[in-house]
Amino acid sequence: MNSEVCQLKELEVEHFEIREVLRCILHTILFHRALGLVRPKDVDLELFEITYVQCGDVELDRKIDDKIDQFIDRVEKHPNKKNQICLSFYEVKNKQATWFTNKVERLYWEQWYINLNVAQHPKGHFGKSHHSKVVVDRGDTAADERSARRAALEASLRDVLFQIIRFVNEKKDHVPPIPNLEGVSFPYEITISRFRIWDGHVQEDAPNRASNDAQLTSKALKLPRSFSSSFVMRSIICVNC
Amino acid sequence: MATYKGNTHSEPAKMEQIITEFFAKSLHIILESRCAYASSRNYSGEQFLSSPSPSSSSSSSSSFRPRDKWFNLALRDCPAALENIDFWRQSNLEPMIVDVVLNQRPSNWDPLNNRGLVRNLSGKERYYYGSDSDEFGCETKSEKIVERWFLQYESKKSCGGNGGKRSNCTSSHSLYKKSILLLRSLYVTVRLLPAYKLFRDLISSAQICSYNLGHRVSSFVEPFTRREEADMQRFVFTPVETSCGRLCLSVLYRSSVSDVSSEPSTPISPQFIQEYVGSPMAEPLKRFSSGPVSQSSPSSSPFGRRHSWSYDLYRASPPSANPSPSPTYSDSHAAISKQLSNRLPPAGLPRHLHDETHDVHMKNPSYDEYWPSPAFSPSPSPSPPTYVPGSQLSKVLLRSESAPLNIPTSRLSSIPSLPNNQMMPPSPPLKATRLIVSKRDAHMGLYNTSSTVDKLFSFSRDEPGKMSNVKPSSNSSSKSYSRNSSRLSFQDDYDDGPFVVDDDDMIDPGSRPSSFDQTRHPSGPFDPDGVFPVKKSQDAAVGALVRMLKKAPPLRQDISVTSHLLNQFSEEPVKELSVASSELISSKTTADALEELRGYKVMKDELLKQGDKRCRGWTMGIGRCVLRLASAWVDVPGELVVDGAGLLTSVVGYITLRFDQWELRDVRVLYLLEREKT
């Protein structure tokens, strides 16, 4: 089964906007992937004039809110970094009892990367002292900037939602058969990346996210965290010499 | 597919049923969020009250009829959809076209007569137009199709050529699955299109809307004219292919419906600037000498306003002397004058302005931050909501007043007077627009630090969306006005900017000379206390700034900078720079700051590039190394610290080691190189 990846357009958000924006995007994606019976629920965003749709699954709402809390914590701990949330859908394959792991294998058939750039810059730095730009949305008062930025973010958020819609429409073949479940029909996982390569490129083949699997695996193998590092470094040295 | 009703029909029959139900479902989804009365939804999510728990089994969903669960999307009943679908139940090969029609009331619609509106909302939508014309017999309404949905099942000539499908079952299953996906995205899209906002405003707004939404469901329509279609955008859902054909869904929608909503965005700027231009500019000095809280305006103001309003109302808009009035400008003028002509008589205006500003504010609490425009006080929706409580009115006015202080003599002295009617003949909205625009230009061109325009804009904080609409309009007109404003601002003789010409007809001729004289005084502008005693803090700041600017030496070489920057906005060559030196001073200051900023940016980019290159190299290196040794590969997310010589000394980051069947992620890599070396 082929795996599809969708990198959503990056959004520049303020701290207080994270929750709404993430809720909107995550719920929209999940609404498209909760192919069991749903009773859709319209939710209006407070900060923007956008209405998105939730599946109406309380459990799902809770999980999403938890993840968003985690994300916000992460953002606070690592400011000035581009942040990424990955929503992946997987199929559970039959267990393979190897000596490596006693975990079931997950076959990811779709991954969505939500890219957020949380703004940390101080406002109005040069704002009051120049008016060189004719650009309409850059006034010289903080409120002006804010509302312009807000409008831009709303437009970008709409673009992201349409990006999701287009992706869902264009790529349907990779979706596995729908199990007989209500609501969210496919198992999913939301992970938050810790870092990205600081030139901003995300490596798609090696998703940049913590994985429960990995953590469990390393615990199972009782690998101290430094183990791999020294291994890696040694090897690097060898080659370089 | 359990929700498939478990029928045992043959495959083609199953597929046909899916397609028929698809038509029904999509019509349901579309009409549910476009047809006001047809939807029984309460947008507070009340639908969940009827079913205890969404995640419970299907037995609890007894509130939904079984047929509603088609495509795993449980929706409430939509009578409009039910009424309209019968045709397609019989023949699903016919296309289905749903037109969402916006019916706008004419501008002279009486808001107090809502009899017709109520009936409209409850009338049958099929006969929508008939009932409408009965209600509003004599008045013509404007009808616009804001959305047109096309749904069709195109059958292929050669059916059954499955091309290697394993069994017939999969095709109907696959079709069902894909239809589910398509309907999900339809559901979301319907809420993202512009018409949804109209719908929401219609059903949720407490105020009477000046429009109504109707729909038409048919299988044949006249195609749009090219001009109509030019205004519309198309969104095509990817067709769902089946063995016998394909299911196509698309929509043509009008991307800008904001002009029809109850709160038009365009005329905002002229609206509140009317007020601005009217009272303070009429008697700027008198006004401010009366004290800080000048809600009680001097008596001359009403006269000034009266003149302006009556001028506006009873005079046809003359061809503009202004070379290029912007379309927004004339549109807003038209809109305003139209509304004006239908509102209060001119005599009533001044009274409203001055005595009832507070009342106006209270009448329209939702328009908190806007200017009270007397003409619009009684009418709730059709007029643009540009109201501001009286105190804010004076505040903003005063602040706008302070703006000229930043601008050297020529601009300030522009306040009261004069003649040179190069600019447009005045009507408040026109002036207003130009006023904002020119001020903006002035600021842009002269790089003053406090922008009146933005302060004015800041009062519309409540409606950021609108402001962003406004600004483009004002900015687009800026080019046309900048020519005039820059020309005017650089000419000592005129003492004017747009203020002047605006005020030309608004001010009492008697008052003009006096104010003119006063402001002509060179030290006048720079003495905030003398001229505008009111906003001391603001003006003091402005005065301090101006003094600072004065101190900086005038630089001839900055003329090029100034002209370059000004020329962004005007085609007029900057001549007559014999203007007050403070203009150049101000431009120097800010231009310098700009240059610095640019420099920093360039530096920052350079640094990033350099670091980028180095680290990228190392990243690649590390990846390759590990690959060789461990049959695994590594990506290094994290920060690589590289010393001056370019040797990798330490790495702080998290890497992923991926092996055949498992991977270690977030393995922390730290500082081990040096140890190994020794």
What radius of gyration of chain A results from the CA coordinates?
Answer: 21 Å
Low-confidence segments of chain A, given as residue ranges, are 122-134, 195-211, 224-241
Largest sheet of chain A: 5 strands, mixed
Strand line-up of the largest beta sheet of chain B: 3-1-2-5-4
Largest interface: A-B, 98 and 114 residues
Instruction: Provide the structure class of chain A.
Output: alpha/beta
Q: Structural class of the secondary structure composition of chain B?
A: alpha+beta
Shape of chain A: globular
- On the 0 to 100 scale, the average pLDDT of chain B is 55
Beta-strand residue percentage of chain B: 5-15%
Model description:
The complex is a heterodimer of chains A (241) and B (678). Chain A is of the alpha/beta class. Chain A contains five helices and seven strands. In chain A, the strands form two sheets. In chain A, strands 1, 2, 5, 6 and 7 form a five-stranded mixed β-sheet that branches. Chain A has a two-stranded antiparallel sheet with strand order 3-4. In chain A, helix 1 packs across helix 2 and helix 1 packs parallel to helix 3 (142-170). Chain A is globular, with a radius of gyration of 21 Å. Residues 122-134, 195-211 and 224-241 of chain A have low confidence and may be disordered. Chain B is α+β, with helices and mostly antiparallel strands and 678 residues long. In chain B, 50% of the residues lie in helices and 12% in strands. Chain B has helices at 11-32, 47-50, 79-84, 86-90, 115-122, 128-135, 168-192, 194-204, 226-230, 268-282, 284-289, 300-314, 327-342, 348-355, 357-363, 390-406, 409-412, 428-446, 452-458, 464-489, 498-504, 511-520, 528-531, 536-551, 558-567, 581-630, 673-677; strands at residues 96-104, 142-155, 211-218, 232-241, 245-254, 633-635, 638-642, 648-658, 663-670. In chain B, helix 18 packs across helix 20. The interface between A and B is large, with 98 and 114 residues.
